[in-house]
Amino acid sequence: GAVVSQHPSWVICKSGTSVKIECRSLDFQATTMFWYRQFPKQSLMLMATSNEGSKATYEQGVEKDKFLINHASLTLSTLTVTSAHPEDSSFYICSARAGSAGGSSYEQYFGPGTRLTVT
Amino acid sequence: AQSVSQHNHHVILSEAASLELGCNYSYGGTVNLFWYVQYPGQHLQLLLKYFSGDPLVKGIKGFEAEFIKSKFSFNLRKPSVQWSDTAEYFCAVNARTGGFKTIFGAGTRLFVKA
Hints:
The structure holds two protein chains of two kinds. By secondary structure, chain A is an all-beta fold. Chain A has no helices and eleven strands. The termini of chain A are far apart. In chain B, the strands form three sheets. In chain B, strands 2, 5, 6, 10, 11 and 12 form a six-stranded mixed beta sheet that branches. A four-stranded antiparallel beta sheet of chain B has the order 3-9-8-7, with no helix packed on it. Chain A binds chain B through residues 32, 34, 36, 41-46, 49, 93, 95, 97, 104-108, 110-113, and chain B through 32, 34, 36, 43-44, 46, 49, 51, 90, 94, 99-107, 109.
């Protein structure tokens, strides 16, 4: 149980284009989803927290107009990197926290990540 | 501010050596603690977690961690490492006071020599 998937697993895009990454909780309802980015050989940095049906809360220093997050349902959140630049190249990881209906509300379940390369 | 610090950035051990990786956190109130492992080219895997109860937690692959509340620590241990334990290890913490956002330490890169 408690599986989180991400799609795509790997994407290459040209500078200036936008890329959408999907995060799905497959067997539980995720009231809260989190988006992280991980640069090579570095730790995971939290970008934003999204609750189903409401606006995402962004961490300090993260541009909300560049990284658009939508959490339209209890099983799906999307991260859109708008007008991507090479410095946005990174590993983007989502995680989901179960609601009271199932799973531990203290634990986040992580997706496998999406590697974005902007050329 | 809430933070997680891992003292060792790089650790090199020979097979069969004992391992202890330090983790300290700065959080108010009750915390939930985690250790994750990331093998080269792979995604995060949960090694073990502590929510409450026995402060000595046993996880997968022979790892264990001890929560010492007075020291704000959650150190990871393994009595005898193997070459296959070569990976990066992340300590992570969340708490109700932080909205249950999980914050990660900088990570410790472990290399085990065969």
